[in-house]
């Protein structure tokens, strides 16, 4: 029986030697930076063309902007992932929130219950909107946009909040549908 720490996905995992030189170089870079290749990359790589398209969009989406930093984008990822009960993203992006906030307690509180984490009203409004997109997207209306503008978000920021939330709804569903397991290393990182 395979240990859960070795399990990645219910789907095939491509042999690294058969992947493109671009993918192999990316995996080597990740191993140098993190000490491992995130299982999400290993799980997606068997459909290599789609993997690269997904990764390029994801990396672009998570780039900070003046009004929405990297930490806020990761906060959105975990607020959405908590609603979707996505084990993979809660663990992997929970690490990212801990690392970016440089506070493991705050990072865990944001991941599991952002409303009681001690965030600013602006951050809570951002996450409330991301959760609304996740749980009841048909109820989104102009009042949501006006509320976020009143908190100081630009239209570009609000679009990014919506796009990050939507992207994580997709990623959460793919992770759950494929049985994706988080790398065990994440659990101890940024603690």
Question: Summed up, what is this model?
Answer:
The protein has 9 helices and no strands.
List its salient traits:
mainly alpha; 191 residues; AhpD-like; 2 domains; Single alpha-helices involved in coiled-coils or other helix-helix interfaces; single chain; 63% helix; 9 helices
Question: Can you give a write-up of this model?
Answer:
- Helices cover 63% and strands 0% of the residues.
- It has helices spanning 21-34, 39-44, 48-61, 70-84, 87-101, 104-113, 121-135, 142-150, 155-177.
- It is globular and about 50 Å long.
- The protein is an all-alpha fold and 191 residues long.
- Helix 4 (70-84) packs across helix 7 (121-135) and helix 7 crosses helix 9 (155-177).
Secondary structure class reads: mainly alpha
Terminal CA distance reads 31 Å
Give the CATH class of the largest domain: Mainly Alpha
Provide the residue-averaged pLDDT. Answer: 96
CATH topology grouping of the largest domain: AhpD-like
Spell out the helices and strands N to C: HHHHHHHHH
Number of helices: 9
The major beta sheet can be summarized as: none
């Amino acid at each position: 029986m395979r240990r859960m720490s070795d399990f990645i996905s219910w789907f095939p995992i491509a042999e690294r030697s058969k992947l493109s030189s671009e993918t192999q170089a990316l995996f080597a870079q990740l191993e140098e930076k993190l000490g491992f290749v995130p299982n999400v990359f290993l799980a997606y790589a068997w459909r290599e063309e789609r993997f690269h398209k997904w990764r390029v969009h994801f990396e672009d989406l998570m780039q900070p902007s003046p009004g929405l930093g990297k930490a806020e984008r990761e906060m959105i990822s975990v607020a959405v992932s908590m609603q979707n009960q996505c084990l993979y993203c809660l663990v992997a992006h929970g690490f990212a929130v801990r690392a970016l906030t440089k506070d493991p307690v705050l990072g865990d509180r944001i991941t599991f219950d952002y409303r009681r984490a001690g965030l600013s009203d602006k951050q809570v409004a951002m996450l409330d909107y991301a959760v609304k997109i996740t749980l009841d997207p048909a109820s989104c209306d102009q009042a949501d946009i006006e509320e976020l503008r009143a908190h100081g978000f630009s239209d570009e920021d609000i679009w990014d909040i919506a796009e990050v939330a939507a992207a994580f709804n997709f990623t959460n569903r793919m992770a759950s549908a494929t049985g994706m397991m988080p790398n065990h290393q994440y659990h101890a990182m940024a603690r």
